[in-house]
Amino acid sequence: MLTHFTASGEAVMVDVSAKPETARRAHAEGRILMQPTTLTRIEQGAHAKGDVLGIARLAGILAAKRTADLIPLCHPLPLTHVEIALTPNAAESAVWCRATVETLGRTGVEMEALCAVQISLLTIYDMCKAVDRGMCITDVQLVEKSGGRSGHWTRTASTPSSD
């Protein structure tokens, strides 16, 4: 049984040294809702602060690499691949973010994928807040993970309460 607590209730990092190294991958996603004019500025590259999506993509990659510095008891992992896809959606007046994170290790990369999405979207918010303070980050969730003892998992429409 994996636990973050000792028998006396003290918090510890889980010892994963006995687990075999396996290829692990996680996909997470989320979106930021905004005013249509804000999305148009982003898409046209007309934002005063520069390439919003390019900077957000870089921020997400850096966040994935630094997840162990942000989440207590999270293992530092040697990531082998991080990809951030940022897709504007005019119908929703939103930017969707999907992060794919991979490693060859003893523990999964779900937290790294989720951090990458959050920080990418927070970067968009930070860069655009002067023109649109009402933006809303929403739907951040793990979509799929593979590798490790628990194997493959994919979110279904009814997953939120079944985890």
Automatic annotation (TrEMBL):
CDD domains: MoaC_PE. Its EC number is 4.6.1.17. It is an enzyme of class 4 (lyase). GO terms for molecular function: cyclic pyranopterin monophosphate synthase activity. Keywords: Lyase, Molybdenum cofactor biosynthesis. The keyword Metal-binding does not apply. One of its GO terms (biological process) is Mo-molybdopterin cofactor biosynthetic process. It catalyses: (8S)-3',8-cyclo-7,8-dihydroguanosine 5'-triphosphate = cyclic pyranopterin phosphate + diphosphate. Residues 13-148 form the Molybdopterin cofactor biosynthesis C (MoaC) domain. InterPro entries: MoaC, MoaC_bact/euk, MoaC_sf, MoCo_biosynth_MoaA/MoaC, Mopterin_CF_biosynth-C_dom. The active site is at D126. The keyword Lyase applies. Substrate binds at L73, C74, H75, M111, E112. Pathway: Cofactor biosynthesis; molybdopterin biosynthesis. Belongs to the MoaC family. Homohexamer; trimer of dimers. Catalyzes the conversion of (8S)-3',8-cyclo-7,8-dihydroguanosine 5'-triphosphate to cyclic pyranopterin monophosphate (cPMP). This is Cyclic pyranopterin monophosphate synthase. It comes from Allochromatium warmingii. The gene is moaC.
